[in-house]
Write a structure and sequence with these properties.
Layout lengths: L8 H7 L3 H16 L2 H15 L4 H26 L3 H9 L4 H31 L11 H12 L3 H36 L1
Helix pairs in contact: 1-2, 2-4, 3-4, 4-6, 5-6, 6-8, 7-8
Length: about 190
């Protein structure tokens, strides 16, 4: 069976005799993808405040990092699996080791498949930060609620916050399309 044409990173660990790491990876992805980010945020904040006395920004950064990490792991796994196993066989037949084949042949091709999904994940992450206000982090949404509570006009500040997010996502989407277009041009140069 091909070294990289497996279910994911967990299978690589199983073949290397450290299957317990595979189980931890699978459990991490399962738990994080299976629970709402708001619940994760509240749990991490409670644990850090109760036992470490950390501030809410640390809890938010940690939570969003852990949450995004699970999704990014699945995106990378899918990107690697999208590469035809013949590419790996070709690298191995050229005398490259497993690591060299992955680094020099599989990953450069997989990155072109991974980047659009990673761009989307980043945009989702930016929008998810709007829930950080639940743990007293002042973000755009929390600031809009604060302004609304002082002016007794809740709708206008929230509409302005929505416009900020919309503009930010629009800019990120344009940057993502530029990057994808640049990668597309590099493909056409090879033909």
């Amino acid at each position: 069976r091909d070294y990289y044409a497996s279910r994911g990173l967990g299978d690589v660990y199983k073949r290397q005799g450290i299957g317990w790491i595979a189980k931890i990876c699978d459990l991490y992805v399962f738990v994080i993808r299976g629970t709402p980010v708001l619940v994760q945020l509240l749990l991490i904040n409670a644990v850090l405040f109760n036992y470490r006395g950390a501030n809410a920004i640390v809890a938010a950064v940690l939570c969003f990092g852990i949450n995004s990490g699970a999704y990014v792991a699945e995106i990378v796994r899918a990107g690697i699996e999208s590469i035809d196993k013949g590419q790996t066989e070709a690298g191995r037949s050229l005398g490259l080791g497993a690591g060299q084949t992955m680094w020099l042949i599989v990953l450069p091709q997989a990155i072109k498949n991974i980047l659009p999904a990673l761009g989307n994940e980043f945009i989702v992450l930016v929008k998810e930060t709007s829930i950080a206000g639940y743990i007293a982090v002042t973000d755009i949404t929390k600031a809009a609620q604060y302004v609304g509570s002082k002016t007794y006009d809740l709708i206008t500040p929230l509409l302005i916050a929505a416009a900020f997010y919309l503009i930010l996502v629009f800019i990120l989407t344009k940057l993502q399309k530029l990057l994808e277009r640049g990668l597309g041009k590099s493909d056409s140069c090879l033909l």
